[in-house]
Amino acid sequence: MRISIFGLGYVGAVTAGCLSSHGHYIVGVDVHPAKVADFNNGIPPIVEPGLDELLKSAKSNSRLRATQNCADAIADTELSIVCVGTPSNAAGGLDLNFVRGVAREIGDALRQSRKPHTLVFRSTMLPGSTAKLVSELLADLVAAGTLRVFYYPEFLRESTAVADFETPSLAVVGSHDGSAPPADLMKNLFGEKASVVNWPTAEMVKYACNAFHAAKITFANEVGRVGKAVEVDARAVMSLLCQDTRLNISSYYMKPGNPFGGSCLPKDVRALTNLARTNGLSLPMLENLLSSNERHLSSLLHLITETEHREVVILGLSFKSNTDDLRESPMVDVAQALLGRGYKLRIYDPALNLAALVGANKRVIDTKMPHLASLLHTDLATAVGSRGLIVAAQKCAPVAELKKLVTANHHVLDVNGWGDLKELPAKYEGFCW
Ligand SMILES: NC(=O)c1ccc[n+]([C@@H]2O[C@H](COP(=O)([O-])OP(=O)(O)OC[C@H]3O[C@@H](n4cnc5c(N)ncnc54)[C@H](O)[C@@H]3O)[C@@H](O)[C@H]2O)c1
Known about the structure:
Layout lengths: L1 E5 L3 H12 L3 E5 L3 H8 L10 H10 L3 E4 L2 H7 L2 E4 L14 H17 L3 E5 L7 H15 L3 E5 L9 H6 L5 E4 L7 H8 L4 E4 H31 L4 H10 L21 H14 L5 H4 L1 H18 L4 E5 L14 H11 L3 E5 L10 H10 L3 H4 L4 H5 L3 E5 L6 H7 L4 E5 L12 E4 L3
Parallel strand pairs: 1-2, 1-4, 2-3, 4-5, 5-6, 7-8, 9-10, 9-11, 11-12, 12-13
Helix pairs in contact: 1-3, 4-5, 5-6, 9-10, 13-14
The structure holds nicotinamide-adenine-dinucleotide (NAD).
């Protein structure tokens, strides 16, 4: 393919070197004359292991040139990749001015040349950015079928960028509506194993990945600080933590849904942060876990109270399915708050037998919901009733049974990702997706 690459910085220069080594013809575009001059001589404008050789080889095979002129590049290529910077602005927001400038120039050049073209944004941009840029600057070209636009986030790390480009840790490509790009693009550019999603999902994945990396580093450092204070080698602790690939380094606990609760997580986070405080340490990330969890619970309550329903059916009261443990169960707090606001409540939880509750578990009910017995239904049909908002916190009822009972007068709020609920004949809403 003949490819223009806009922005010859860390991402653009590596992309140019790697794609030229795959046999593509590359025209680099940058506003900096010195970078363009270097590139035209096969010299990398940045320090990156392996890039020197790639650019030299591309230059000697006449597969590389650079220009400051957008129209020149567009006239000479069939596809453009935008890798210009997206820095923070003074308020901490995202400055899209460089991307916007390039998109405008590319649009103008395409209107002149009238050639079909493919535009791939690689710069990191917040969800909604590609759609906004297209609607503001390129809508006519897309509508005329002259221009196809994809968002293709970059996951390379500086210093291992060439190797990361060749074997990416993740490949995701966004199209307007999530439909697959043409086979030649999947084969020659995105990679046949790339996951295809819509633009905003691809944009969001990049931010979720970087926020996750930042969260992991901060977590390990906070464990390190508290460990050192109590003379524990936290590098050994973290190494052991990473040995658990079932619960720790895994997709477990990595799905948006229920707030956390139960007899261990809130209590142990409280104790650990208290230990840090008594040692004069501040651990902002760990200290804020409980308040973030409370915020999450509040947003669930907000969603419930935003609907027009004043009858609520809670499926699953304990903190997770197949247990009758009610200690620090988020749904007990939800039930308590709704009762306080005068809602009519029906609860279904087959794991719960009030007569069998003892100790701390029984105290939760005695103090928070003494009249639980009158709200708890052992019969699913009575619990579901003929109308109301079904707050499904757990998969505690067979969907086949729910299908027979749920009507268009119900509204289903899926708290924990129970996709089958979409098949019910009621309005479906996901809690945080
Ligand atoms: N650096 C990384 O490790 C990395 C990794 C993944 C994603 N990203 C993302 O990729 C994007 C680029 O990052 P980078 O580190 O390569 O940036 P960079 O600052 O190194 O390079 C950006 C280049 O764009 C050029 N430019 C600016 N306006 C231009 C215009 N109108 N026309 C042509 N060129 C123009 C600049 O002169 C510069 O050379 C950012 O959105 C960044 O967040 C970076």
